[in-house]
Amino acid sequence: MLQLREVVAAYGPIVALHGVSLEVPKGSIVAVLGANGAGKTSTLRAISGLLRPRSGSIEFEGQRIDRLSAEQIVSLGMSHIPEGRQLFSELTVLENLRLGAYSRFTGLVRSIGEYRWRKQDFEDALKQVYEYFPILAERKNQIAGTLSGGEQQMLAIARGLMGNPRLCLLDEPSMGLAPMVTREIFQIIKTINRTQGVTILLVEQNANLALEIAHYGYVLETGRIALADTSENLRKSEAVRRSYLGY
To answer: What are the pLDDT digits (tens) for 4-23?
Structure first.
């Protein structure tokens, strides 16, 4: 579904990615592990069009996207759920979810029938995310900035799902969360992948949890792929255990 080939990307004179190549098969969960500054977030930004690669190529479902705008990439069926949530904190939960569906329902409404179809499609999408995150239904009129950290992360994921993506880029979903809340969110991510067939590229520092739910994984070190293998084999790797798993 997604292929990166020898991607080089930089912020001005600082090179963040030094020829990164990776693949994300359709229907899978792929984890990208690494320390702070390894290039994990930069990899997701390059994929979603927020960071223009200097060289290399990125293909999504057979189409080259590394020269497309972020808006064009979203319209192809990709959703980027960024590090730190980045919600519209002064808007309500429901308003944030409506904005997540924006790319799905843009364009002129040409008939009453189309209006009714769009309205029903939105309601169906909303029902789906409320099933994953019941607390959001209870708090739909609450200002997003007043939610707890875990609830804000749930809202960020739900907002990303409202666009009906085929591929979700998830950046550090466990950041700042209690272990129990983190495990709950990771189980929901696994469920979304299994029941909806959404392909997931997961950037995460909690290597234990990431490799529990992922099918395959990559380890980034200073902007380069250091290791790539099945999640099972990575969990057995002495280098991964020592550096990322804490045992």
So the answer is: 999 999 999 999 999 999 99
